[in-house]
């Protein structure tokens, strides 16, 4: 009996001693040196780089359509027209009025320099000239959207009208284009300012991810979109269609940093904290600054953490700092 009692006391004392030196069980992993970057995703519109969309500048009736199936047009060739005779006569009249006003203005300018006519007469002549010039420019703009000629050697989209169809103002008519290079237009929100010349851009459509050849970002805030107007160029063969909507991803500010699993970060009093293992297996609580996130890792900025630092990733709920820890697999 004495022998049994003595062994029991020995085992009990050994258990108590071992327990007093046992650490808190935690899981941990090394901090990781890795590449971090920022990503922004925005909606975008795809257009053919060398293309032009035409919309009716006024209502009217179709007076010319090309032969069915004709797709290619040479520079200066008529493609489509709405009330061609009406707008051609208006164009001729406006051109003649501008020519007459220009001749009168040049004559009166010489007379004015010789002090033959008064200031008032010269001003009237100048006003008449600039009024005629403005009217001509407006008429020309209207004409070019109602009577459409090929500006270069181009192909055209399908035309869904026939002779004498009625057209509404602002109605889409057709698109002219040359080549198959794509231009992606989008706006970057004003809250972002990307000045990284090494930024990479991708167009995402369904499961397809296409890297852009070039990225251009305006440094002037657009008053209409409230963002920075931007463009991507794509020459690689793809399934993007003219006037289709896609998503653009821009990857920028690539850099090497120290990362830890996101779930190792502790939010406490509005600050980010983390537990690390000291050389003598003691849990040490540190306040850290966090940066970018990539693949469930978060960048840590701290002079006390490097790629060899052991980070407590699980079990830190049982820690307050200063405890001995045992790392389990």
Number of helices: 3
Low-confidence stretches: 13-20
Instruction: State the end-to-end distance.
Output: 42 Å
Determine the strand fraction and express it as a percent band: 35-45%
Summarize the helix and strand pattern as letters.
HEEEEEEHHEEEEEEEEEEEEEEEE
Biggest sheet layout: 11 strands, antiparallel
Rg over alpha carbons: 37 Å
Number of strands: 22
Mean pLDDT: 89
Specify the helix fraction band.
Answer: 10-25%
- Give the overall shape, derived from the CA principal axes: elongated
Structural class: alpha+beta
Secondary structure layout plus pairing:
Blueprint lengths: L1 H20 L2 E7 L1 E17 L2 E5 L4 E5 L7 E2 L4 E5 L1 H30 L5 H28 E3 L4 E3 L9 E2 L4 E6 L4 E8 L10 E6 L2 E4 L2 E9 L4 E8 L9 E18 L4 E3 L2 E7 L5 E12 L2 E5 L8 E5 L10 E3 L2
Parallel strand pairs: 1-22
Antiparallel strand pairs: 1-21, 2-11, 2-16, 3-10, 4-6, 4-9, 5-8, 6-7, 8-10, 11-15, 12-13, 12-16, 14-15, 16-20, 17-18, 18-19, 19-20
Helix pairs in contact: 2-3
């Amino acid at each position: 009996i004495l022998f049994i009692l003595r062994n029991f006391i020995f085992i009990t004392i050994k258990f108590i001693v071992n327990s007093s030196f046992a650490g808190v069980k935690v899981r941990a992993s090394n901090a990781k040196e890795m590449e971090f970057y920022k990503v922004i995703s925005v909606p975008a519109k795809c257009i053919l780089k060398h293309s032009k969309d035409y919309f009716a500048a006024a209502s009217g009736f179709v007076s010319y359509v090309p032969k069915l199936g004709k797709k290619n047009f040479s520079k200066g060739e008529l493609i489509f027209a709405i009330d061609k005779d009406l707008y051609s006569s208006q164009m001729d009249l406006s051109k003649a009025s501008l020519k007459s006003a220009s001749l009168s203005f040049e004559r009166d300018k010489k007379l004015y320099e010789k002090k033959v006519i008064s200031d008032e007469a010269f001003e009237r002549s100048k006003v008449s000239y600039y009024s005629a010039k403005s009217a001509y420019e407006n008429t020309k703009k209207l004409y070019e959207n109602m009577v459409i000629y090929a500006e270069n050697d181009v192909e055209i989209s399908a035309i869904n009208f026939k002779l004498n169809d009625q057209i509404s103002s602002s109605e889409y008519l057709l698109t002219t284009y040359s080549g198959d290079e794509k231009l992606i237009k989008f706006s970057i929100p004003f809250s972002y300012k990307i000045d990284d010349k090494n930024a990479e851009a991708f167009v995402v459509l369904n499961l397809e991810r296409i890297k852009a050849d070039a990225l251009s970002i305006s440094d002037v805030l657009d008053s209409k979109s409230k963002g920075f107007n931007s463009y991507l160029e794509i020459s690689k063969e793809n399934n993007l269609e003219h006037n289709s909507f896609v998503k653009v991803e821009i990857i920028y500010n690539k850099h090497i940093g120290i990362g830890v699993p996101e779930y190792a970060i502790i939010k406490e009093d509005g600050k980010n904290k983390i537990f690390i293992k000291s050389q003598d297996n003691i849990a040490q609580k540190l306040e850290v600054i966090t940066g970018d996130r990539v693949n469930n890792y978060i960048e840590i900025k701290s002079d006390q953490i490097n790629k060899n630092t052991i980070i407590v990733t699980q079990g830190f709920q049982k820690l307050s700092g200063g405890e001995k820890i045992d790392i389990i697999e």
